[in-house]
Amino acid sequence: MKSINLGWTLGVLSKNIGLKSLTLLLTFLVFGIFSCNSKNSKDQEIVILDNIPVLELTPKTIEFPKTYVCEIQAVQFVEIRAKVEGFVDRIYVDEGQFVKKGQILFQLSSLEFTEMVNSANAKLSQAKAEAQAATLEMERLRILVEKDIISPSELQLAKSKKEVAESGIAEAEAMLKNAKTGLSYTTIRAPFDGIVDRFPKKSGALVTSGDLLTNITDINEVFAYFKVTENEYLTYMRAKMEGEELISNPDVTLILSDGEVFEYTGKLETLEADFERGTGSIAFRVRFPNPDQLIKHGASGKIQLSNQLENVFLVPQKSTFEIQDYSYVYILDKDNQVKVRSFKPVQRYGVYYIAEGFEEGDRIIYEGIQQVKDGVFVSPAMVSEKEAYDTLSTSL
After folding, report:
1. Whole-angstrom Cα distance, residue 8 to residue 342?
2. pLDDT for 226-253, tens place per residue?
3. What is the DSSP string of 280-327?
4. Residue 364 and residue 344: Cα distance in Å, rounded?
5. Of 263, 280, 277, which is closest to residue 227 (Cα–Cα)?
6. How do strand 187-189 and strand 104-108 relate by DSSP bridges?
C-alpha cells in the first residue's frame, strides 16, 4: 500500500473546499474515530459466559455430630498396696477375677504380728493386775486412816499409785490395739466389688510397706473425659447461663476404638476446675453405664456430640477456593455480574462448609469456578437446592 502525505492532502483539500469546511470535516472524522474505539473497548470489557450452574442459598438449621478423643476410666479404681512388711504367704484370687467387697485377696506372713498381739495381751493383763493391787492397797490404807493409825498422806500416795496403774492399763490397751491392727494388715481384703488386675508380687515374695500388690476396678460404670478448647468452653457456659441447650441431644454417644458405637449412651456431668496450661484446654466428664463390663479402665474412644446450628448456610466445597488460608466463593449480583466474596467456614459438614454471613437468596457459582473471574457476566443455569444437595449427599 502506498503512503499518503497528510500535509499535502490537507493542502489540496483546503484549496478546493475552503478552510472552514475542512475544519468541520476533521471534527466529524475525529468524533467517528473515538466513537469506534469506545464501542470496541466496551465490547471487549463485557464478557458473558453461558449456562454457568448457579445455586441459590437458603438458611438452614443443621444438626451435625462433632467428635472428641476421650480417655476412659473406671468409676472406682484403687491401688492395693501392702501396709506392713512380710512375705506373701497365699494369694486367694486370680488375675482378672471379679471379687466382692470384703473378700480376702492376699495373706502375708503374720507370725511376728501374732507374737506382738500376744505380748500386748500379756502386758495388758499385767497392768490390770497391778491396778487391782493398787486398788486393794488404797482401800486398806483408807481403813487405817479412818482409825487414825496412819497419816492421810499415806492414803494419798496409794491413790497416786492406783492412777499410775490405771494409766498402765490404757497404755497396754493401746499397744494391743496397734498390734491387732498390724496383724489385720497381713490379711488384705477387697475394698469394694470389682475386678482385680495383675499381681506384680507372687506367692513367697517379700513385700515392704507401700509395695503394689494389685489394682481393683469397679467398671459397672465408667467415666469418659474429653477436652475442649477455651472458646468451646465459653460458648457452652454462656449458652448454659442463658438457659439454652448447646447440645441438642443430652444423651452422649461413645465410639469405641474399633469404630463401633457403644450400646449405651452417657450423660454429661461436670468439668474440671482449671485449664491445662500446655494446651489451654479443659476436660468434660461423661458417665456411661457398663453393665456388660465391655469397657475396661484405661480404654480409649471418641465422644460424639450432636450440635445444632440455626440460620446457617450449606456451601458446597467444590464451589469454593482458598487463597492464603481464606475461603472464597463467586457470588452473582442482580445484574448477573460475578463478584468475589470471602467467608469463614464455621465447620466442615461432609462435602459442605457450614457458613454464616450470607443472606437468603444469595446466588453462588455452583460449578465451573475455573471458568469465571471477578467482574465477568454470566448467563446462569439455576441448579435447584434439592438437585445440588441430593447429588452431594452420597458423600456425607
Report:
1. 61
2. 988 888 788 778 877 776 655 545 678 8
3. -EEEEEEEEE-TT--S-TT-EEEEEEEEEEEEEEEEEGGGEEEETTEE
4. 15
5. 280
6. antiparallel
Of 312, 333, 247, nearest to 284 by C-alpha is 247
Q: Please give the angle made by the CA atoms of 354, 253 and 234, to the nearest 5 degrees.
A: 55
Residue 95 CB burial class (10 angstroms; 0-12, 13-18, ≥19): exposed
Q: What is the pLDDT of residues 125-142, one digit of tens each?
A: 888 888 888 888 888 888
Q: Side chain identity at 40, as an amino acid letter?
A: N
User: What is the CA angle 328-329-332, rounded to 5?
Assistant: 140
Q: What pairs with residue 194 in β-bridges? A: 99
Query: Rounded CA gap, 126 and 316, in Å?
Result: 93
Pairing mode of beta strands 320-323, 194-196:
unpaired
Domains of the chain as residue ranges with CATH: 48-61+311-393 (2.40.420.20), 66-74+219-308 (2.40.30.170), 83-108+188-210 (2.40.50.100), 110-185 (1.10.287)
Percent of residues in the chain assigned helix, strand, coil, to nearest 5: 35, 35, 30
Q: Which residues contact 83 (CB under 8 A, 6 or more apart)?
A: 185, 209
CA-based diameter of the chain, in Å? 180
Dihedral of CA atoms 72, 76, 77, 83 in degrees, nearest 10, equals 170
Sign of CA dihedral 197, 94, 82, 88: negative
345, three cell numbers: 467456614
To the nearest 10 degrees (0 to 180), the angle between helices 19-45 and 6-17 is: 130
Q: Using CA of residue 322, residue 328, residue 332, residue 338, what is the dihedral sign?
A: negative
Q: List, for residues 181-229, the tens digit of each pLDDT value.
A: 889 999 999 999 999 999 999 988 999 999 999 999 999 999 999 988 8
C-alpha cell at 38: 469506545
CA-based nearest residue to 123, from 162, 179, 184, 181:
179
- Give 25's Cβ-side CA count (13 Å radius): 9
Q: How far apart are the first and last CA of the chain?
A: 69
Residue burial 64-77, b: 16+ Cβ < 10 Å; e: rest? beeebebebbbbbb
Residue type, 221: E
